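Hi Y.,

Following your request, here is the sequence exactly as I used it, all 218 residues.
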Amino acid sequence: MKRKRLNRDAWGFMYYPYYQMRIDTEDFHGTVCLIKMTDGENNYWETPKAGRIQVTGAGMSWLELVPDNTRRVITCKYYPEGTHDTERKNYPATSDERFQPSVWYVDVIETTEYDEDGVMVFIDKYLDIIFFPEGEISISDMDELEDALKTGDITKEQYEAALAEGEMIRKELCSDIMKTEVWCTKIRRLVEEKIENGEPEFISREKKALACQSGKVL
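Below is the corresponding structure, written out as tokens. Let me know if you'd prefer a different format.
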């Protein structure tokens, strides 16, 4: 299993604000992280239904949610504020026109910890659930999960726990995707309010990490 930092410095973004904070509200209990991309190439994924969807680029932002008592990291990748790709002809109206998701990417994880610099880290357990505003849902890296079981990288219990978490993600987040969009928007608004008020517990302005170049960051 791989260690992955929530500031995503292994992606090689340059000079971007990263906010990490604890949130406890009626809607959410857990850790929330926000990356605001100030530069970088526009990268896209090709999907069967949504078509070409943007995942990185100047002006985009990633909201990352780590709810308590779950084994998941939910990443909502937003277009630059108030926009979405016009190629997406079936893109639905969102609850707040400022925050328009391109894709949700949910990592099934084993646990979380913190690096010495305060950045939260998650231990990735291969399986990913990906879904889109248009309603498309897919499961990724099932083959890697099965290979990890065969090679002994994970136990049978960890394998079954990953499958169970994946199924809960599908039921809780994908059965009504627009309900999930509203939920994420509520959290995003609160995060923006806290940033404006200078409340985040952890703030950094990352640059391309030497640690990444040396292979320390996965």
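The radius of gyration is 17 Å.

Thanks again,
Q.
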